[in-house]
Each structure stands twice: as C-alpha cells, then as structure tokens.
Write a structure and sequence with these properties.
alpha/beta; YbaK protein; Hypothetical protein af1432; 2 domains; two-stranded antiparallel sheet; 23 helices; about 50% helix; elongated
C-alpha cells in the first residue's frame, strides 16, 4: 500500500526510523505531494506543546486554529508551543525537519480534535518538506488508538471579517481594550490607551511634504535638528545598497546626490514613527524581525510600482511609506495589550498555517491592520497609507486608493514565496495583478531584484535596529 512519490525536495520515501514505526503499528499509507491533497478539513495540522509536566502532540484540521486557552482548560495544563531549538533536536533524531502528525515519534500523550474522526481519509505531514501521508479509515484508528479527543480548535470560517467601514475600527479597538481592562474604561479611545502624539520631527517633515515650494535645504534643516535621524540619513546614503560614488559629507549631500527629496521625506517619517514605540521583547519564533520585514517590503513595493506602466503608478513616496509602515500595528498592538501580546505570539507559533491577523481577530476582536490604520488616521497621515495598512491582507480590495493596498498585499505575498515574513503562503489572484497592470513574471522579477541585494539591505536593517535604541 505504500506508494512512493517524488517531491520537489527530492524525497522518494520516508526515513527508515519513521517507516519502521509505522510498520510496527500496522499503519498503511500512500505518499502524496502538496498538490495531491484533499480539503483543508481533512488535512491534519500537528502542534507540539509543552509545560512543566512534559510534551503533548495536538492534532487538528488545517481549516481551524488551535486555541491554547481551550486546550489548557481541557487538559488542566498551561501549555505553550515547544521552543524551536528543542523541537529541532527531537526531529533531527528521526531525520525530519517539520513536526509530523505521528504520535508514536514523540513518545508523548496526544490529543486530537474530534472533527478529524468524521472523515474516512486524512492527509498528514510526514515530517519531510512537501511529503504527506494519505491515511484511510482503519489506519486512522490505529494512528490515534492511544490518543484522547476533545474540542479545542476554532473554525477559521467563524472569525468575523474585516468591517467594511474604517470608522468601525475605533469601536473594535475600544471594545478590545474594555474586554482586557478590569476598569472597563468608558473614555474616548485615545484617552484610554494614551496614544502619544505624532512625533515633532514627523510633523515638520509632513508639512514639507505638502509644500510644493519646499527645498532640499529646508528638509536638510529639519533632519539635522534630530541628530539620530541625521546620522541615519547619511548612513543610508553611504550604504552599499545605493552604491553612491564618493564620500557622503552632509545630510544635504545625502538628499541631493543619492537618496532624493521624496525618499528622505518618507524615510524620515518612518524612522520618527518607529521611534514612538519600542520593539516588543517577546516575539513569535520563526518570524522575520520587524525592521527587516519593513525595509524589504518598502524596497520591493518601490520596485513593483516602477514596474507598472508610468501612467498607472501611484505616488512613489507614499507607496514606499506604506511599505515601511505596513506592520506598524504590530508595535501598537504590543503597546496597547502588553499582557496579551505574549499570548498572541504563542498562538502564532502554534498555528503557522493561519495568518496572524486572523489569530488576533480570534483573541482580541481586532487586528493589527485595523489598529495601525486607525492610528494613521488619528495622526492625520495620508489616506493612502491608512488604506494600504487596513486592507493589506485583502487580495480582493478594489475600493478607493486600492492600488496602495494591493501593492502591499502583493509585496507580502512575494516575500512569503521567498520564506520572508510569517504565516502561510498568500495566493496572488490574476484580478489583483490586472488591477495593478503587472504580469506575474514582472512582479517576481521586481522582488528578486531587490532580494539579490539582500546583504546590502541587511546593512540598512542594522542601521534601523541600532539607530533607535
């Protein structure tokens, strides 16, 4: 019954240790590739959890997310995803690289979502990239014969969609604050969460942005009033990514000879806003670092816009700023909900098949995209930026200023294809490419061109990370 299949990674069979364990339990299977799998409800997601008692393997359908609070209450334990380093050591012993849905490998208790036994066929991660086990009725019973069942996961289809009206965002954030605040505050949102005002430097720069007569000298004067910002601008202009000839001697030199007025305007705003909130100390394992994601996104979104027909391009400066700030809600989320940000991180680790904004919707009733977009509106930032942030995960958005949101979506999808970012792969619909007047090949080339300079980009990431301590 064991049918071999060749995968993209070159595997044609399971490691001997896995094969032996399956034979010992009399479990038959077919090997399948990702494009041969059935409905998500019949695909098994495996999550290795642990606490002071020990490890536990949880199995649930891929069209659901595991709720750590529910499974903790079910078992009377305080479970969190096993740390990546520990999991890698366990998997290495069996010659595999991902957590398989095979309880016998871990020698630990197993609990499975009850809905799984409603099906007569399941597809299970084998532990090797791109290779899955197709298991049918009797063999499913053998696989989970010593496991416990329960209801501890949440259907993704049950999560509330993004409200159509952006004005609803403030109410959603306020409701979430009230739900997680013992005082049940009734003040206006900005009073309740004490959002700081738009930084003074950003205010000055934004005034220059809308002044048609603003000069490089005026921008240089504003930048130079903030020593950290001035050092960053000169450092960027001197970086290998821009390959400027000669030495950069001043801020004005950096603006006029290398970076340009628009780029420095938006770079200065992004840097000033990034200084407003600290990076959270607790982050989800395996996720791309905040500034790395921001800078890669800004660079790629700039490349995508330049690949569009000239008469269809959005304003390049705002486009770059939208890329730089697309994940700003992440910082605000950690600021507003510090006790619960850790819980969000653990759920992201436990549900790598679920986009983080859906996890936030489940746990808080509001997403980082809504929070980031609301704050942009509260600070009177351009509507193009707030729209891009709010609809960045909606591939079908075709409302006002959709080009900015669509370009951020496309950028994030291209990064996920190249293993940058977090969460599952994001489909790229033909309709989205048509709205942007881009071909699939042109989009891929724009992303690859930027990432070919990844080493130089990492220098800029380093500057961002260490310039705002």
């Amino acid at each position: 019954m064991n049918t071999l299949a060749v995968t993209d990674a070159g595997h044609t069979s399971l490691p001997d240790s896995i094969e032996k364990l399956l034979q010992q339990q009399g479990i038959g299977y077919h090997l399948r590739q990702a494009d041969q799998l059935g409905p998500l409800a019949q695909q098994v997601q495996a999550c290795l959890l642990g606490d002071s008692v020990g490890m536990l393997l949880a199995l649930f359908p891929r069209d659901r997310l595991i709720d750590l609070k529910r499974i903790g209450e079910l078992l009377g334990r305080e479970l969190e995803p096993v740390r990546m380093a520990q999991a890698e050591r366990i998997l290495a012993k069996h010659g595999i690289s991902t957590v398989p849905g095979l309880p016998m490998i871990f020698g630990s208790p197993c609990v499975f979502e009850q809905q799984l036994v409603e099906h007569n066929r399941l597809w299970i991660d084998s532990g090797l990239p791109g290779l899955y086990l197709e298991i049918e009725s009797d063999d499913i019973g053998s696989l989970i014969s010593k496991a416990s069942s329960g209801r501890f996961s949440v259907p993704l289809s049950s999560l509330e969609p993004l409200p159509s009206d952006p004005e609803q965002d403030r109410n959603n954030i306020s409701d979430a604050v009230k739900n997680f605040t013992a005082l049940r505050m009734r003040q206006r949102l900005e009073e309740t969460i004490e959002i700081p005002p738009l930084p003074e430097t950003a205010q000055k720069v934004m005034k220059l942005r809308v002044d048609p007569d603003a000069t490089i000298e005026q921008l240089a004067d504003v930048v130079e009033t903030d020593p950290s910002l001035a050092a960053q601008v000169v450092s960027w202009a001197s970086s290998p990514y821009y390959a400027a000839p000669g030495k950069i001697r001043s801020v004005e030199d950096a603006i006029g000879r290398v970076l340009g007025f628009d780029l420095v305007i938006n770079l200065a705003v992004g840097l000033a806003l990034g200084k407003t909130f600290s990076l959270p100390k607790d982050t989800a394992e395996g996720s791309t670092q905040y500034w790395e994601q921001a800078i890669y996104s800004a660079a790629i979104i700039e490349g995508l816009a330049k690949a569009m027909p000239r008469n269809k391009r959005p304003e390049l400066g705002l486009n770059y700023l939208a890329g730089l700030l697309h994940n700003f809600g992440y910082l605000v989320l950690a600021y507003i909900f510090p006790p619960y940000f850790k819980l969000i991180c653990r759920h992201v680790e436990a549900n790598p098949h679920v986009p983080s904004h859906l996890i936030e919707q489940h746990l808080l009733g509001v997403t980082r995209d809504q929070i980031g977009s609301w704050l942009m509106r509260y600070w009177d930032m351009p509507a193009e930026v707030s729209t891009a942030i709010r609809y960045q995960h909606d591939a079908n958005y075709d409302g006002d200023l959709h080009v900015y949101a669509n370009l951020v979506y496309l950028t994030l999808a291209l990064l996920r294809e190249r293993d940058i970012g977090s969460g599952p792969q994001m489909p790229i619909p033909d309709a989205l490419l048509e709205r942007l007047n881009l071909s699939r090949d042109d989009a891929a080339k724009a992303a690859d061109k930027v990432l070919d300079a990844r080493d130089a980009l990492r220098v800029l990431v380093h500057e961002f990370k260490h310039g705002w301590k």
